[in-house]
TrEMBL record:
Keywords: Oxidoreductase. This is Flavin reductase family protein. InterPro entries: Flavin_Rdtase-like_dom, NADH-dep_flavin_reductase, Split_barrel_FMN-bd. SUPFAM superfamilies: FMN-binding split barrel. It comes from Antrihabitans spumae. One of its GO terms (molecular function) is oxidoreductase activity. It comes from the Bacteria.
């Protein structure tokens, strides 16, 4: 599956032990009515226990300029939130990353064990979109073990 390019997201949530987050490339939109989205998390992930205890989370859509965040949240868990200048908490307590113009707050609807992963289905309760009428930043892509910036095709 590493030969199929994917957009890069960071999932963040609050836990009793503090903020939890991880990089994910398995995001998908499922339904418009109700607004449902999904992603997968490995059963071996250091974040799996906190995710199973969470009621809600935030999905950040990374732009091409945010590779540093994707790499930070793919590292060991203790380094992900070490730089307090990169994030704050919503009034609902989920951590949210600064400089991410598009993110979704999601209530966990279903956790479905599938193979060596859990499929997370969430109901979107809030959409934060700072882009307004401006074109959104180009997305950060992941393909075959590397990050990429998309190049538009002319024609």
């Amino acid at each position: 599956m590493r030969h199929f390019p994917a957009g890069v997201t960071i999932i963040t949530l609050d836990s009793e032990a503090g903020p939890v987050g991880f990089t994910a490339t398995s995001f998908a939109s499922i339904s418009l009515d109700p607004p449902l989205v999904s992603f997968n998390i490995a059963h071996t992930s250091s974040s799996i226990r906190a995710l199973h205890a969470a009621d809600s989370l935030v999905i950040h859509f990374l732009g091409e300029h945010q590779q540093h965040l994707a790499q930070r949240f793919a590292r060991s868990a203790d380094q992900r939130f070490a730089d307090r200048s990169l994030w704050t908490k919503l009034d609902t307590h989920e951590p949210v990353l600064h400089g991410t113009p598009l993110w979704l707050r999601v209530v966990v609807d279903q956790l479905i064990p599938i193979g060596d992963h859990t499929l997370v289905i969430g109901l979107v309760t809030r959409v934060h979109d700072e882009t307004g009428d401006e074109p959104a930043a180009a997305p950060l892509l992941y393909h075959n073990g590397r990050y990429y910036r998309p190049t538009p095709l002319d024609g």
